[in-house]
Specification:
five-stranded parallel β-sheet, 15 helices
């Protein structure tokens, strides 16, 4: 492996950049960090073998500046680029530009990024591959008959950005008189975030669970799953706590979901890591939601129950190695849960950036921490306020929940407001303890 990539440019920041560097170091691969003016002293810069400034603090002037990223990678004599998640990770033009500059993009084929990045195309493709999408509309432009289409889809419904992701560009309309406001909100957010006002409508499924399948493919028609994750603890349509295996689904649905997701990836000859996300109804029926053509934030829970390093497999697959995993990989061992620790107000969920004082995380058997900061580091107002991901493993779910409860109580973060009180409320809630919660659980808990 060490002869395949000599130096990898990490086109990201924060905890995911540090996490990718950790695997590269284990494999003997040098790493090169990129940083904005706001991140000159950041942990990911300190963790790399080299670093290059790429611009001012705003992401549009630094981490989203593809030319600056590529220039830095080439100048540092990197032979590959790992995009992490977010930022440029699902930008097909960036993936193609990497190849044009002689760099290996550590991710899927740009065509698959393109197909799955357009929600309308992705839904049509998955329908053709045997995975039903959530009932909804095709892409809707501003001058279409939205009222008539909404009536056909049925209320309550969600207005979504066609090129969106991560819960951005979404608005709920529970009845017709709320539709106009939801459309304005979704289009405005989509225009700012994705440069497109194109939206579509999707039925809102009450009582749904958010379940996703972790996949790997070699680009030659071989694919496999690494189990599923439950991601229903969400705020503002963004995940807060994830776990695997999903406690909410039946064994028969699990088999069907995993098998269909693998078959779909085999048919399109998908390469590298990807995740098929679904909503599962209270009646145990699943619908395709979206596919993320990148590494997920919550990938550590899968690593904890499989014993695999997904970043290492991303690197191997990008280097052209065959997809050969040990037989036990698809059979999870025990149970893992991840809690995202943010610098945000635990009730309003508003970001609370600032400079941290003492920061201490627990350690020990069954505990993993992927941190973005250390003591004295700043949580910047320019970026996502994720401080760390606290991940625990137990032989069964009850043990994992108890271990997470104890680990959360052992975290110490001074100097910035954080969401630890909320995480502790979630983990103590009867519905969470019982493993019987849906995507509206956190909304109900917050009142």
């Amino acid at each position: 492996m060490t002869g395949m990539f000599q130096r990898v440019c990490i086109a990201n920041r924060g905890e995911i950049a540090v996490r990718v560097m950790r695997t590269c170091r284990t494999l003997g691969i040098a790493t090169h960090a990129l940083y904005s003016d706001a991140d000159a002293g950041a942990l990911h810069v300190r963790s790399a073998d080299g670093a290059t400034r790429i611009g001012a603090a705003p992401v549009a002037e630094s981490y989203l500046n593809a030319e600056a990223v590529l220039d830095a990678a080439v100048a540092a004599r990197c032979d590959a680029v790992h995009p992490g998640y977010g930022l440029l990770s699902e930008n097909p033009a960036f993936a193609r530009a990497c190849a044009q500059r002689g760099l290996t993009f550590i991710g899927p084929d740009p065509l698959h990024i393109e197909q799955m990045g357009d929600k309308d195309r992705a839904r049509a493709l998955m329908r053709a591959l045997g995975i039903r999408p959530i009932p909804g509309s095709a892409a809707i432009l501003p001058d279409d008959d939205v009222d008539g289409i909404a009536a056909q889809v049925g209320y309550p419904l969600i207005v979504k950005a066609s090129r969106g992701g991560g819960g951005i560009g979404m608005a709920v309309a529970r009845e017709p008189d709320q539709l106009a406001r939801a459309l304005r909100r979704a289009r405005s957010t989509a225009s700012r975030a994705f440069g497109s006002q194109e939206i579509y409508l999707e039925r809102q499924i009450l009582g749904a669970h958010h379940v996703e399948v972790q996949l790997l493919g070699d680009g030659e028609g071989a694919a496999l799953h690494l189990g599923e994750r439950e991601c229903s603890v969400q705020r503002r349509h963004q995940k807060v706590i994830e776990e695997t295996p999903a406690p909410s689904i039946s064994a028969s649905l699990r088999r069907d979901l995993l098998n269909r997701a693998v078959a779909a990836m085999e048919q399109i000859r998908y390469r590298n890591a990807g995740t098929v996300e679904c909503l599962v109804t209270p009646e145990d029926v699943f619908y395709f939601l979206e596919m993320n053509t990148r590494l997920q934030v919550e990938h550590p829970v899968t690593e904890m129950v499989t014993g695999l390093d997904l970043v290492a497999w991303q690197l191997r697959l990008a280097a052209g190695e065959p997809l050969r995993l040990p037989p036990h990989a698809a059979t999870p061992n025990g149970h893992a849960i991840e809690a995202r620790i943010y610098a945000e107000h635990p009730q309003t969920l508003l970001p609370a950036p600032g400079r941290a004082g003492d920061v201490r995380f627990p350690s020990g058997d069954g505990i993993r921490v992927d941190a973005a900061i250390e003591s004295g580091d700043e949580v910047s107002p320019y970026y996502d306020p994720l401080i760390a991901k606290l991940v625990v493993w137990g032989g069964d779910r009850d043990t994992a929940v108890q271990r997470l409860t104890e680990a959360l109580a052992a975290v110490e973060i001074d100097g910035v407001t954080h969401n630890l009180p909320l995480l502790q409320r979630i983990v103590a809630a009867p519905a969470f303890v019982a493993g019987n919660y849906d995507v509206y659980f956190l909304e109900s808990l917050l009142g």
